[in-house]
Amino acid sequence: xxxxxxxxxxxxxxxxxxxxxxxxxxxxxxxxxxxxxxxxxxxxxxxxxxxxxxxxxxxxxxxxxxxxxxxxxxxxxxxxxxxxxxxxxxxxxxxxxxxxxxxxxxxxxxxxxxxxxxxxxxxxxxxxxxxxxxxxxxxxxxxxxxxxxxxxxxxxxxxxxxxxxxxxxxxxxxxxxxxxxxxxxxxxxxxxxxxxxxxxxxxxxxxxxxxxxxxxxxxxxxxxxxxxxxxxxxxxxxxxxxxxxxxxxxxxxxxxxxxxxxxxxxxxxxxxxxxxxxxxxxxxxxxxxxxxxxxxxxxxxxxxxxxxxxxxxxxxxxxxxxxxxxxxxxxxxxxxxxxxxxxxxxxxxxxxxxxxxxxxxxxxxxxxxxxxxxxxxxxxxxxxxxxxxxxxxxxxxxxxxxxxxxxxxxxxxxxxxxxxxxxxxxxxxxxxxxxxxxxxxxxxxxxxxxxxxxxxxxxxxxxxxxxxxxxxxxxxxxx
Length: 479
Prior knowledge:
- By secondary structure, the protein is of the alpha/beta class.
- Helix content is 65%, strand content 6%.
- Among the domains are: 21-159, Diaminopimelate Epimerase, Chain A, domain 1; 306-439, no CATH class.
- The protein has 16 helices and five strands.
- The protein has a five-stranded mixed sheet with strand order 1-2-3-4-5, sandwiched between helices.
């Protein structure tokens, strides 16, 4: 197989190697028409003068501040007719020979490429030139985006046939079919081994921690008061602890018995992942069992156990001022409520801790109050999420997508958080953290923005009603 691949690649290199080299030509001239005022001309001119085309080419950069609804092609043509007839052919029906125009509208978010008939490229290549600058333009890097677009144009304009995409596809098709399967398979096997190693490291850390604390966990479970509702719920989770530990032990041996070759298989990686997830789950549960026993019985060290229960909620309440000060939170009714909720509940949390410290409240009642505060925050964050989604999303499908994205982040964050008694008793959808709200909302917006951008990035080639019979080579798209 390697011999076959070598012969095919050698043949391809030979075909390319015998072709004549293209001549590099600096632009014949560079014209900057920055009517939008967004370009840094010293950097731009220097960079453009050092870009090599395959034939002397007049490079024009044109910017304008328009509207999203504008026909950008029509506006570029209108500008050329009014102020630069030299950009047009003698009969005014096409762009002048030897000319390449790179144009964009930073306000209307459109970019276009136009050229003389002797510099004409296919619609797909025009789209490729525009695509090369799109990400930079989305970040408002106007000068760098322009340079990138012109570099791409220089590569594609008058491109020799032996450097074209179709040539490499046609000559490399045999090699592709020969190697594609092997390349993908090799990459997947390597990725599987890397995943397996990560899962194994994660699982071993959790399993070692559980194993070392096995006797302590059993002793803690024996003295948890079953009369307590929290104690009973935690003990319910402990009842199959030994069976699940034995299952983790079997998975541990199985995972470590795999060779590197066997860890290249997805099915085996899934088994190692199962081992890691189970080991981490047991490690979190034995911590909760210890804290439940210590806290409910007020054994020595109960202060540390109590602090571990309130710390996640306290951290969330401290982060509320940052959440409500964000731009997207302004004007939402939920913002005002959250703004007052934080200080109020932080004071209640301090009072709750003091009451527990002085013995004026039972551990059971303290956990009840803690759960009540957490439930209140969760309800408000859910309202805030709904309001933020309604404000940003334009369609019902966007709202659904944003909610799904935020729920997924909320669930993932729940499993990453420090294990607590309340967290082990209730499910992920019972609590909502400020951290998961923030990260989930950012992810949801990015997902919607990407969908909108993809939907609006279609190319346009017409020159509008004022274009008349003009048929010059050019097109535009959105960014």
